[in-house]
Design a protein that fits this description.
This protein has 528 residues and is an alpha/beta fold. It contains 14 helices and 19 strands. The protein starts with a helix and ends with a helix.
């Protein structure tokens, strides 16, 4: 009898070892689903880390209302996202967070949009250790989401018997991604400049027209930024087209040169503009900047509201007052129902972050201002992934006003009843719309751009039609002490494995052992 038990024990040892390895290796996968997912932005600026620092996902899926989220992948829809909820998940050591977003943001309510804008604004000011991913809502993913949310695998069970029952008849999902840890990538920003020169003198006073062209959002691949600042880019290129006709029209004698600048890093403290200025001041081009009388920045002018942001209220006799007066006259002539609101705000020299684009030039002692439909730099929604709505009529009207104002400025026209841009010198609305559509559909987050990106090439080619000396400057991060740094792994594949809970394998192993034991002793009893 003792020998029989020893034989059985040795047999069980081998079986137990094999079954234990199977349990440890993986839960029982029933099916697998594959999705494209986009990781939350990760970058450093000024030596400070921002965004999501992890990309690891290999956790059981749980809904947002689960009792236990530690080392789980929490699935939630955009409508369930809030700042408090995200902070709670992160503080409870959620392994990863996967947020489903609608492909058409028009399905969201205003409350959901406002909540999302707040989440983006808050989270992108922090460094987060939890991996955060976003993916578009697809039928298969929505099915998984609802199964996880309504299923019995959410750590909720009224009794121990109910919990045990869940083990046998419920399925779960294991969310997994493969790949290496995020690593720094070659990081560059780009500035595209062009000139429009009058030929009467060797040196002329000059004005600058500036807009940043890259997008920004909680994930590089989700950011479209149609209004902020696709509208500014579209308006600048259309203004360049109109002014080129004005400069070449016989009988017109503009008295100013014009410099156009489209820069990257707009939401990285307007870093490309800053680096471009520093580079110009360190070369012979500093003389050109000394001739700049005023710099007008266009930032989000595609919706209702027309605000002129300056460091102080313009006084008569200054370049800022002359520009403001030209814009007011243009608005009164073209669209009397549109008023320009002057919004003065001093530059806080103790704060390294600029509030508006013009402040980059102001600290270099250049007179400058920013036009925007946003009344304040911290208006909710100015920096968000849902920026896809542009009022085409407003964009046309604002572009028309700015173009007329600049034409009046460079022509020194004071008569409030006379048009400069008339006849064929009016904006082309269809061209504006096509430009906005292109920019809104093109990934142009700073971390995704290089010298041969389509948006860089297209802006360069378009500006070259109207301006001369068009140059694309690549502004690289310093190797020793980089002012900015981007990271890879922004897009990946997520795999959702439909599995039984891991503890199910343990019960299965015990059942197999019991079955083999019964068989073993039955055989032994028949054949002693």
């Amino acid at each position: 009898m003792l020998e029989t038990l020893n034989d059985f024990g040795r047999s069980l040892g081998s079986i137990w070892t094999l079954l234990s390895l199977l349990v440890i290796c993986a839960p029982a996968a029933i099916a697998v689903h594959e999705f494209t997912a986009y990781r939350m932005n990760q970058y450093s600026h000024g030596g400070v880390d921002y965004g999501c620092k992890s990309n690891m996902v290999n956790f059981e899926a749980r809904s947002v209302n689960a009792n236990v989220v530690t080392r789980r992948c929490v699935l939630l829809s955009m409508g369930e996202v809030s700042v408090d909820r995200m902070r709670e998940l992160i503080s409870n050591k959620a392994g990863s967070i996967l947020i489903t977003i609608p492909e058409n943001s028009s399905t969201l309510t205003q409350d959901e949009i406002d909540s999302w804008n707040e989440v983006e604004q808050v989270l992108m000011e922090e460094a987060i250790d939890t991996s955060v991913y976003f993916t578009y809502e697809k039928p298969e993913l929505l099915k998984i989401y609802h199964e996880v949310r309504t299923g019995l695998n959410n750590d909720h069970a009224a009794t121990a018997a109910a919990a045990l029952g869940n083990v046998f008849h419920s399925n779960g999902y294991q969310i997994v991604t493969y790949g290496s840890a995020p690593a720094p990538i070659k990081s560059s920003l780009f500035a595209i400049q062009g000139k429009m020169l009058i030929q009467s003198r060797e040196t002329n006073p000059c004005i600058g027209i500036v807009a940043h062209f890259d997008s920004y959002g909680i994930s590089p691949h989700l950011a479209r930024s149609s209004n902020s600042n696709g509208s500014g880019v579209a308006a600048l290129l259309e203004i360049a087209r109109l002014l080129s006709k004005l400069f070449n029209k016989s009988g017109n004698t503009p008295k100013y040169d014009i410099v156009f600048l489209l820069s990257g890093g707009g939401k990285l403290n307007y870093l490309a503009s800053k680096l471009w200025l520093d580079k110009k001041y360190s070369t012979d081009a500093a003389d050109m900047l000394n001739d700049v009388e005023f710099v007008l920045c266009l930032d989000s002018i595609g919706n209702e509201g027309f605000n002129f942001h300056v460091t102080k209220t313009p006084k008569q006799g200054t370049a800022a007052y002359k520009m403001l007066r030209a814009m007011e006259q243009a608005a009164n002539l073209l669209y009397p129902n549109i008023s320009i609101n002057v919004a003065p705000k001093k530059v806080n020299l103790k704060n390294p972050l600029f509030s508006w684009h013009h402040e980059v030039f102001t600290v270099k002692r250049l007179s400058a201002g920013t036009l925007s439909n946003f009344p304040s730099h911290n208006t909710l929604g100015r920096l968000n992934s849902l920026d896809s709505a542009v009022d085409e009529d407003r964009l046309y009207q604002h572009t028309h006003i700015v173009a007329e104002a600049i034409a009046r400025y460079v022509s020194d026209l004071e008569d409030p009843d006379v048009f400069i841009l008339n006849d064929d010198l009016v904006p082309n609305k269809n061209l504006l719309i096509r430009t906005i559509d292109y920019l809104g559909k093109t990934e142009r987050s700073a971390s995704l751009l290089n010298r041969y990106s389509s948006v860089v090439i297209n802006i360069e080619q378009t500006l070259s039609k109207y301006a001369t000396e068009v140059i694309v400057s690549e502004l690289k991060a310093s190797k020793r002490d980089p002012e900015f740094q981007f990271y890879d792994q922004s897009e990946t594949k997520l795999f959702a494995y439909n599995v039984k809970p891991a503890v199910f394998d343990l019960f299965l192993a015990l059942a197999v052992i019991c079955y083999l034991g019964i068989v073993y002793f039955t055989v032994k009893s028949v054949n002693p």
